[in-house]
Amino acid sequence: MLTVSNLSKHFGDLAVFENFSLHLAPNGFTALVGPSGCGKSTLFNVLTGVVAKDSGSVSLQGREVPHLGTTSAYMHQKDLLLPWFTLMDNALLPSKIAGENPAQSILKARALFKRLGLEGFEDYRPGEISGGMRQRCALVRTLMFERELVLLDEPLSALDAITRASLQSLLLLLQVEFKKTILMITHDIEEALMLADEILVLSGRPMRVLDQICPGGTKPRRFDDPRLIEIKLYVLNLLQGELVQ
Amino acid sequence: MKRATLITLLAIFLVLAAWETICRVLSIPDFILPTPLRIVTVAVVQADLLLPHAAVTAVEVLAGILMSLMVAVPLSIAMFAHPAAENAIAPFLVASQAVPVFAVAPLLVIWLGYGMASKVLMAAVIIFFPITVNLLEGLKGCDQEFRVLFRLMGAGFWQTLRLLYWPWALPHFFAGLKVGVSVATIGAVIGEWVGAQQGLGYLMIQANARLKVDVVFAAILWLSAMGLSLWVFVGFLEKRVITWK
């Protein structure tokens, strides 16, 4: 689905990552876990073309592209809902910008509102609902993109623990029900262990892959699984080693 | 009634009461400083003299506001879209405010005549600056994360302007418009002082020459009412338009 080869990015003398590579299988769920400031968000910025890469190549479905640009959907840790629009208008933004048929887009958005538990809130403004509901609306908007690859930049980090737990299962819907390929940045190891098929543990700058872990088993996984606890401690040890360095 | 409104009304009452008392105790004649009661009486009793002139000034001010909007909005958008245009235009913008309006007024009367046009232009020159500067700052203040989201949705400049930048900048636009309308009368009145055959500025010059200071103050009262009404109207419009705050 997505292959990144020997990607490098420097800011002046600072090497954010050098010869960084990764491969995402179609309909896979990959999580990037690393210390704060290691360059995960810069990687997303380079992948989406917001920041220019120094060297390396990006291939989407076997075709080399300068960057992913508008070929991927993107969900930020902030919901980025426009306060002057209703939830429905916010969800319809991607289709409105793409010039899609409004009637069909509304039907699709209504179905997604129902599926994500937002039915009846279509005409509310973002300021009138809770943070969890806003993030669910952001998820509806992400699904309205109609793109196979979805980039999630710490999508639940701004939420409280209880809301986050309820939304984690909704993130799985992206993969299971909507057949998306997902690349997610998270600083929450448990979240990565619960949701991802593959976890890339990243080092500090220059960012490189310290280890690649495939937890296996049926998702969503349970936190009290001794095997997962063991993996979590292993990842924590790896990251703490990075912090000491 | 709110406490803040009560305090404002009380402060106004105390100032007027002190003014009235000083004039009466010191027996200051009306041609030096009329009492507030005298001014209000003249403003009401001589309304048939004042109102036609006030109507002329009001038309000049409203036309000035309209003209300044027609210049300020496209100019701000052009400067926002093309930073090179901002660099080129900014010195002229600042110069237009650095030159005293009194210095420009006689020139405008020579160029545009004693009619309404020179006064409308004077008002517009004063109003357009706060609107332009505030709107430009509002457009520039849009969050980078929202810009990136729109870019990744594939939105072009005009789509982003309509859906994101313009609503984002609206509170700044209204702040500029409020400042603009509250000083709008200055331009029109200065234009009338320099050369006119009607308008409150013209009436003030005529009354002043005949030592009818109470009529001068009555004209000022009407001008203040005009400025205040415009300010209140823009505030009302702002509340109707910016419903998400």
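qc> The interface with chain B takes residues 48, 50, 69-70, 72-74, 76, 78, 80, 82-84, 93-94, 96-98, 125, 127, 145 of chain A (CB under 8 Å).
qc> done
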